[in-house]
Amino acid sequence: MARTTESSVTAASVPAARPLPGHAHAEAWPAAPARAVAMTTRRWTVAVLLSLLPLAGCAASDASPDSSPSTTTSSSPQTPSPSPLTSDAPTAEDEAAEAATTVVNEMLRVTDAAKQDPGARDWEPEIRRFSGDPAALLAVTAVRDYATIGLRQEGDTVVELEVTDVDLAAPGGPTVRITGCYDSQSTRVVRVETGEVVPPGTPSRYVWDITVTRYEAEPGSPWLVNQLDPLTDRAC
After folding, report:
1. Is 186 inside any structural domain?
2. Which domain holds residue 230?
C-alpha cells in the first residue's frame, strides 16, 4: 500500500467549499475596482476643496472696511458748573463816600472861580449849592472880603482828599468825615491894583478837616460841605 503525506495532496483533490444551508452566497468585491473607487473619491474631494478656495477669497476681498460695524460713542453735553457769583455793587457807605468827595471838589471849583473874580456877581447862591453853614457862610464872607479889599486869587486849589469815617446813622443826618492835605503853593493872593503878591503866612502844606452831611429834609436830600477848617498847625 502506497504511503501518502499531506504535501502530496494537490489542490485539485480538495473539494470545493459549499455554502452552508440557509445562507445566501456572498460575492467577493474585486480588489482592483475597490482601489479605483477610493482614488476617485479622494480626487473628487480635493477638486471640490480647490474649487471652494477662490470663492472664499472673493468673499474676503469683497468685504470693505466700511462694512465692519462702527462703534458710536455718544456723550451728553457737559454743563459747566456755575461759578460763584461775586457782587461788585458798591455799598451804601461807598456811595456816601463818593458823593461826599464829589461835593467837596465841586465846592472848591466854585470858590476858586469866585475868588479869582470876586466882584463879578453875587456868588452866594452858587456856593450854597454845594455847602451848608457854617462852611457856606465862611466861604461867602471870604469872597466878599476879597471884593472889598481888592484882592483876587491866582491858580486853582490843590488838595488831596481821604475819607476817614462814614456814619449813615448820625443824629444830624448821614455824615462823612474827610481829611484834606492842602498845597498852599497851588494858589496865591494878589492885589488887584498893583499885582503885589500877599504872603500866605501859612505852611506850604497843611491839613483841612472837612465834614460833609446829607440834608435829608431839603429837596433832593443833597450832600453839602458844612465844615471846612484849615488846621495850619498840622503839616501834611
Report:
1. yes
2. 92-235
Does residue 101 sit within a domain? yes
Q: Is residue 87 part of a domain?
A: no
State pTM to two decimals.
0.63
Q: What are 147-196's pLDDT values in tens digits?
A: 999 999 999 999 999 999 999 999 999 999 999 999 999 999 999 999 99
C-alpha–C-alpha distance, residues 146 and 192, integer Å:
10
Question: How many domains, the chain?
Answer: 1
Q: What is the distance between the alpha carbons of residues 202 and 189, in angstroms, rounded to a whole number?
A: 13
Task: State the residue for C-alpha cell 473874580.
Answer: 117
Q: For residue 117, tell me if it sits in a domain.
A: yes
Neighbours of 85 (CB within 10 A): 5
Closest by CA to 107, choosing from 208, 2, 1, is: 208
How many degrees, rounded to 5, is the angle at CA 95 between CA 92 and CA 98?
A: 150
Q: What angle do CA 95, 99, 101 make, to 5 degrees?
A: 120
H/E run at residue 125: helix 124-127
